[in-house]
Design a protein that fits this description.
Helix content: 25-40%
Distance between the termini: 118 Å
Radius of gyration: 24 Å
Low-confidence stretches: 1-6, 210-266
Number of domains: 1
Number of helices: 11
Largest sheet: 4 strands, antiparallel
Shape: elongated
């Protein structure tokens, strides 16, 4: 009796899947003239991601029951290099995953609501020192809490995410989609600026506002890093304390005038 009489596909090793995928991807590359961008997890840690943006992306998905029960299926796939191509654009992720065949995964993320974005910007105004610090996740605990808040933060909710895979699995989050979702986190480790492209917002708006003016870069230059275990509830990464408040200027300096020194008596 053949394998198809039982409704199961024959076993195909990971090496064979990747080899088949490479051949199919080469054909696609010739047509699209775009070099593939595979997702490579090179470190041997338990976590797939290592930075704030990558880790926050994955943790955000894992906290929703719609994803939490299915996401673990994709961890092995992304670790063994099965996500052979992943591209991030405005509100879209397009990827190819090596399975029994080369499967196409498409993820669409709704644009971030303007009111929600303005609220995030307002709560962060004057509290982010530089674009470099923002992209590295070198922020205070309060700012990280604002950015990663499930309801009012930057990361999408399930209702904002549309998933599609060319595989025959009926589940909305099949193992190929799950692998790509984790792959997005890994890609954000490398290029955190892609997060803002995906969410269709301008990260520079977090640095200043019309009311407060430009934010001084010196706010983070002398900041002290905290141990990750002290803020494990904020994704367990190195975080920078809020800088001490600047000394208030004297009334004379605020007015732009000088005060003559007092004369000594006698």
């Amino acid at each position: 009796m053949a394998w198809y009489d039982y409704g199961f596909r024959p076993y195909v090793s990971v090496a064979e899947k990747k080899a088949n995928a490479a051949r199919e991807l080469a054909k696609l590359t010739k047509r699209t003239r775009r070099a593939p961008e595979p997702v490579l997890v090179t470190h041997r840690r338990r976590q797939i991601t290592t930075t704030f943006w990558g880790t926050a992306w994955c943790r955000n998905l894992e906290r929703y029951s719609d994803f939490a029960n299915r996401l673990p299926r994709g961890r092995t796939y992304v670790r063994n290099g099965s996500v052979v191509d992943l591209a991030i654009a405005k509100g879209k992720v397009h990827a190819y995953v090596a399975g029994s065949e080369l499967y196409t995964v498409q993820i669409e993320i709704a644009p971030m609501a303007k009111a929600r974005w303005r609220k995030v910007v307002g709560r962060c105004t004057g509290r982010i020192g530089s674009l470099v610090g923002l992209l590295r996740g070198e922020l205070s605990a309060d700012v990280l809490t604002v950015l990663s808040d499930a309801k009012d933060g930057l990361f999408p909710e399930p209702k904002e995410i549309a998933l599609k895979c060319s595989c025959p699995d009926w589940a909305g989050v099949c193992k190929h989609v799950a692998a790509v979702l984790y792959g997005v986190g890994t890609r954000l480790d490398e290029k955190p600026e892609l997060f803002f492209i995906l969410r269709q917002v301008d990260q520079t708006e977090l640095l200043a506002s019309a009311t407060s003016g430009a934010v001084s870069r010196s706010r983070t230059s002398g900041a002290k890093r905290l141990a990750s275990d002290k803020l494990a509830d904020v994704f367990g990464i190195d975080i920078v304390d809020e800088p001490s408040a600047a000394r208030r200027a004297s009334p004379a300096s605020r007015a732009g005038t000088s005060v003559a020194p007092r004369r000594r008596k006698g």
